[in-house]
Specification:
By secondary structure, this protein is an alpha+beta fold. It is built from five helices and three strands; from the N terminus they run H-H-E-H-H-E-E-H.
């Protein structure tokens, strides 16, 4: 990806809610988009963050952010069908549309 493509990709992400998507949140969104679904533990390990930080980031990317005025609705959290005590993070329909928009930039 060259710098023009990166610039256009950041414009796509920035257009969601200007100022509401910090870089580390965008990185988590891109990770979820690449993995199709992942656990909080995988996010923790990949970005070397605490469980609380992973939870806050996922919540802000999802529909239910307790500490934010607006939610981006890019991911959803579902119970893992293989392990009922575990949750999976995956793209919502809106998140999948953003993923397609980003793919069109490249």
């Amino acid at each position: 990806m060259d710098l023009d493509q990166l610039d256009r990709a950041l414009e796509v992400l920035g257009s969601l809610d200007p100022g509401a998507l910090p870089l580390h949140h965008a990185q988590v969104f891109l990770y979820v988009a690449q993995e199709e679904s992942c656990t909080y533990k995988q996010i923790q390990d990949r970005f070397e963050i605490s469980n609380a930080s992973a939870s806050r980031i996922v919540n802000s990317l999802g529909e239910h952010a307790r500490h934010r005025k607006s939610c981006l609705g890019l991911v959803e959290v579902v119970i893992d069908p293989r392990e009922g005590r575990r949750y999976l993070v995956r793209l919502s329909k809106k998140g999948a549309a953003v993923k397609r928009a980003l793919a069109a930039v490249a």
